[in-house]
Amino acid sequence: MRKVLALLVVAAVYLAAHDGISAVPASTTASPAAATAISYARQQLGKPYVWAGTGPDGFDCSGLTQAAWSAAGVSIPRTSEDQWADLPHVSTPQPGDLVFFPGSDGTWSAPGHVALVIGGGQMIQAYGRGVPVEVSPLNGDGAGGIVGYADPAASGKAA
């Protein structure tokens, strides 16, 4: 089993290095605030996608990330576009960071989709209508490519 895991990590690092943007967190240990945000997001798994949803019964993508970080005591903007514009960008994602995609209603400079990096090459997202909050692979295949990453914890904005 260890050999399989080691091979998977090597393959993921290779692919990330040749992708232009790292898809593998340098660390899989979340900070206490990030762990709280991830725990909150995990508790929302299976809830419905709701356009402009901020919970508790349903979420859109940025409503989920905002609520998760609010649970950790960090205030972030409401929309994916404002989150991207306001939060500190990072080049290597850590658990708890946000990952941004152009999305169907966004652009490379104003991303229309955001998800929460949870480590292990995965993210939690509220993808779209008909898709409940879910854990998905951290890649840009389904959303038009990864725009970049941001670290809400580095924003210094307590809720």
Description:
It is a single chain. The chain is an alpha+beta fold and 159 residues long. Helices cover 29% and strands 15% of the residues. 40% of the residues are buried.
- Taking all Cα atoms into account, the compactness measure Rg is 15 Å
What would the CATH topology be?
Answer: endopeptidase fold (from Nostoc punctiforme)
Number of helices: 4
Q: End-to-end distance, in Å?
A: 42 Å
Q: Can you count the beta strands? A: 6
Annotated CATH homologous superfamily: endopeptidase domain like (from Nostoc punctiforme)
Strand proportion, as a percent range, falls in 15-25%
- The unreliable regions are 1-26
Largest sheet: 6 strands, antiparallel
Helix residue percentage: 25-40%
Mean pLDDT: 84
Anisotropy-based shape: globular
Which characteristics define this entry?
159 residues; alpha+beta; endopeptidase fold (from Nostoc punctiforme); disordered N terminus
Short description:
This protein has four helices and six strands. By secondary structure, the protein is an alpha+beta fold. It has one domain (25-155): Alpha-Beta Complex (endopeptidase fold (from Nostoc punctiforme)).
Ordered list of secondary-structure elements with their pairings:
Layout: H1 2-17, H2 32-43, H3 61-71, H4 80-86, E1 89-90, E2 98-101, E3 113-119, E4 122-125, E5 134-137, E6 148-150
Antiparallel strand pairs: 1-6, 2-3, 2-6, 3-4, 4-5
Helix pairs in contact: 2-3
